[in-house]
Amino acid sequence: METKRRDFMGLGLGLFTAAGSIGALYAMKRTWDPLPSVKAAGFTTIDLAGAKENELTVEKWRGKPIFVLKKSAEMPKDDRDVIIGSDRFHVTIGLCTHLGCIPAYRKDKQDFLCACHGGLFDISGHESFGPPPSPLEIPPFKIDGTKLVLGEEGPEYKKMLEAGVTV
């Protein structure tokens, strides 16, 4: 009789320990998972249907400014242009690649000037003067009709990468 009681107590203790371990593992996994608010902040959708030519729109994605500019037919075409239907857009992260300042768009000269150290970027985001070491960065994007979804690598973005475009 004693062995049966000990076996039962051992089995009970083993099940209790297993349940506690599973609960602890579940709690650890929950702390590692990003919060829903963090997941939602990873994607930003911008509707470009009402965009006007040569007018800069500044959106926010993951705490960074995003420059969106609808290009006119007179503006030079570039491999970095995001094409939606028959329209071309300049879409970049609005931070200078030198020290992270926010460049100002000069509508009359159609360029971006960084006031920190005089860095200059052309209408397509290429560095053209000063200390910036590289062009303005293009965020990962996906095109969904007339909407631009930032934070997801769509086929258009992957095509840019495959073509060797500096993003």
From TrEMBL:
Keyword annotations from UniProtKB, A to Z: 2Fe-2S, Disulfide bond, Iron, Iron-sulfur, Metal-binding, Oxidoreductase
Enzyme Commission (EC) number: 1.10.2.2
PROSITE patterns to which the protein is assigned, alphabetical: RIESKE
Official protein name in the record: Ubiquinol-cytochrome C reductase iron-sulfur subunit (EC)
PANTHER family registered for this protein in UniProt: CYTOCHROME B-C1 COMPLEX SUBUNIT RIESKE, MITOCHONDRIAL
Cofactors required: [2Fe-2S] cluster
Domain Rieske: 66-150
Originating species: uncultured Sulfurovum sp
InterPro entries: Rieske_2Fe-2S (IPR017941), Rieske_2Fe-2S_sf (IPR036922), Rieske_Fe-S_prot (IPR014349), Rieske_Fe-S_prot_C (IPR005805)
GO molecular function: 2 iron, 2 sulfur cluster binding; metal ion binding; oxidoreductase activity
